[in-house]
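Tokens in:
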């Protein structure tokens, strides 16, 4: 169980609790060239640059991304389930 005082927790419960997430290759939303993990701010990007992630867990609309480490750390706390497919992009 993750400590409720973990530095990565910044009220994400308001919009991420109880969602079905899917593990997807990263694809940027329109107008963006990258996104960040909702918890640790790791960078998601399609170019193969050092220190960038190229897949992760995403919401159905692909607007929110979560790295694998944060997904595992917060899965129980946020009551996430894993979906096989996601919906249209934001």
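Residues out:
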């Amino acid at each position: 169980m993750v400590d409720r005082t973990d530095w990565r927790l910044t009220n994400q419960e308001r919009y991420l609790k109880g969602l079905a997430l899917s593990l997807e290759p990263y694809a940027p939303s329109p107008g963006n060239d990258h996104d960040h993990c909702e918890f640790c701010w790791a960078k998601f990007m399609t170019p193969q640059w050092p220190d960038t992630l190229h897949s992760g867990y995403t919401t159905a609309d692909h607007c929110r991304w979560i790295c694998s480490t944060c997904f595992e750390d917060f899965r129980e706390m946020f009551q996430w389930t894993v979906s096989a497919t996601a919906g249209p992009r934001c």
